[in-house]
Amino acid sequence: MKRFALACALLTGAAFAQTPSTQPLTVLNVATGSKGGTYATMYKNLGDVCTSASWLRERQTSGSVESVDLLLSNQVSLAFVQLDVLKARDQIDGDARTKGIRTLLALHQEELHLIAKKPTKNFFGRLSGVTSYSQLAGKKLGAWGGSVVTANVLRAKAGVSFEVVSFPTREAALSALSAGTVDAVLAAVGQPADWVKALDAQQYSLLPLDIDPAKVKDFYQKAKLIYPQFGASVDTYSVQSLLVTRDFKTPEKRAQLLKYQACAKNKLTRLQEDEGMHPKWNDVTFKSAGWPDYK
C-alpha cells in the first residue's frame, strides 16, 4: 500500500512539473549581424538589462539579407534588420512572405558610410579616385549584407550608374578597397562604428552622398557622419533599423516575445544612461517606424 501511495505521489509530482506555468522556456535564436557590429552590441545590452533575454541565443550573420532569409526559413525567431531590405524584398522582389514579418522593436537610424581611399595625384598633377557619391558613375562599389540592397536601391533611385560588387564579409570588401579592385565601399551601420573608427584617416576618406532627397525619400532620410579623426561632418543618409519577428500565434512564444518587448521598453532609460551601453540607444524611441508591429 505504501509503495502504491509513493507511486501515485511521484506521478502527481511529474504531472505538476509538466504544467505550462512551470515548463522551461524555449530558447529562441536571434540573427544579429556581424561580430562587433552595432546590432550585436545592442543585443548584448538588452541581455544585460532584461533577464527575460536569458532564453535568447545569438546567431551572427553577414547582415540583413541573410538575417531576413533565416527568419523566413524558420531558422531564427528574431532578426535585427534594415527597413530598406524589408521594403526591397516586398516591393521590388515581390516576396509575399515578408507580409508575415512584424516589428518587435523599432530601433535607431543606421547611417550610410561611403568609404574610399584618399585621391592620389599622378605625374601630371591630376587627381585619381572618388570624392563623392556622384563620382561613382561607371565605377565599382563594394558592399556586403544588407548594404548590397542599399547600394542597389541607391543606384536605381539616385540616377548614378555603377557596378555593385557583393562581398561575403566586411573584411573581404575592405581588402578589395585596399587592393584597388573596387573604388569605394558602402556600409549601413549605426555610428560610431568601431571598425570605422579603426580605419586609417591618412589612407581613407568618408565621402558625402550628394543625392537629391526627393529621389530617395521613401527609403532614406538625411543625416550626418561625425568621426573626429576624419575631420568635418559628412552629409549622408540613414535607414531605419528594426528588431523583427514573424507573426507567431503560439501562446507560449507570443508570451515570451511580448515579455521581451515590454522589458526593453521599460528599461530604455537604463539602456540610454548606463555606462558601457551603445550610444545609439540615445536615438531610440521605440515608436512605430514604417513596418507593422507585433502585438
From TrEMBL:
This is TRAP transporter substrate-binding protein. It comes from Deinococcus psychrotolerans. It comes from the Bacteria. Transmembrane segments: none annotated. The keyword Signal applies. Residues 1-17 form the signal peptide. SUPFAM superfamilies: Periplasmic binding protein-like II. Keywords: Signal.
